[in-house]
């Protein structure tokens, strides 16, 4: 009896995408890096500026998000090997191709979520 090869397991692209970008800060990190390389502190400051209800991002959480984005191939980490340490993060080609997707999400949010906030304010 001949062995048959198992068919390759297909992953739903939407589920795979959702898994890749899941996390509280990943989309915002990609959006922040669209303008060029940033150091850890610059990324952290950018996230704090837009934070609602959160005055602090723990270093552990930010490091985890940066590592996950690096592993997914969206960003690249460049260590300059200096003392004090200097590390920069930048979008890869794959990450740059993702910026229009984040821009579309942002535009949708401005149109539809701004509307909901205005309606809620008017109802009060």
TrEMBL record:
<dbReference type="Pfam" id="PF01638">
    <property type="entry name" value="HxlR"/>
</dbReference>
<dbReference type="InterPro" id="IPR036390">
    <property type="entry name" value="WH_DNA-bd_sf"/>
</dbReference>
<dbReference type="GO" id="GO:0003677">
    <property type="term" value="F:DNA binding"/>
</dbReference>
<keyword id="KW-0238">DNA-binding</keyword>
<protein>
    <submittedName>
        <fullName>Transcriptional regulator</fullName>
    </submittedName>
</protein>
<dbReference type="InterPro" id="IPR036388">
    <property type="entry name" value="WH-like_DNA-bd_sf"/>
</dbReference>
<keyword id="KW-0804">Transcription</keyword>
<keyword id="KW-0805">Transcription regulation</keyword>
<dbReference type="InterPro" id="IPR002577">
    <property type="entry name" value="HTH_HxlR"/>
</dbReference>
<feature type="domain" description="HTH hxlR-type">
    <location>
        <begin position="12"/>
        <end position="117"/>
    </location>
</feature>
